[in-house]
Amino acid sequence: MKILITEFINKNSLDELNNTFEIKFDEKLWEKKEELKEIIKDYDGLIVRNKTQVNKDILSNANNLKFIGRFSIGKDNEIDGVSRTDGIEIYTGYINEDYEFGILIAQDDMNMATFDLDGVSLQAKKINQNFKLVPVKQIVENFLD
């Protein structure tokens, strides 16, 4: 599988990907929109962060991409999603058994509580400022399912 990486990626993560996949890495490719549009046709996967604009124009030439994915933070209404954030951070590497492949941390401005009012499920602000922790393994497994 050939993977294109258009922005900065941790060296250890890049080395791990190179062990399994054929990688083209250009951390400034996100600035070269026409080049990206031209070469994306040759790749099965695309890894971006926040600078690469993956839009209709780019995707019109991405005939070999195997999947496009996105995710949100939440779990069966037990954990509310991130409503607004001042940032996210991802670390790929062993932390402990719960985060054996790394962790994604998202700062959230508030938690939401779900409550029932006359049979209608509603949400309301519960507490301010919190962090959502997501195992990298869980993100990867969701994309591969």
Question: Spatial order of the strands in the main sheet?
Answer: 2-1-3
User: Over the alpha carbons, how many angstroms does the gyration radius reach?
Assistant: 18 Å
What structural category do the secondary elements indicate? alpha/beta
Determine the mean pLDDT: 79
- Portion in helices: 10-25%
Total domain count: 2
**How does the overall form come out from the CA principal axes?**
globular
The total count of strands amounts to 6
Summarize this entry quickly.
The protein has 145 residues and is α/β, with parallel strands linked by helices.
Characterization of the model:
It contains four helices and six strands, in the order βαβαβαβββα. It has 145 residues and is α/β, with parallel strands linked by helices. The protein has two domains: 2-59, no CATH class; 88-144, no CATH class. The strands form two sheets. It has a three-stranded parallel sheet, with helices on one face. A three-stranded antiparallel sheet has the order 4-5-6.
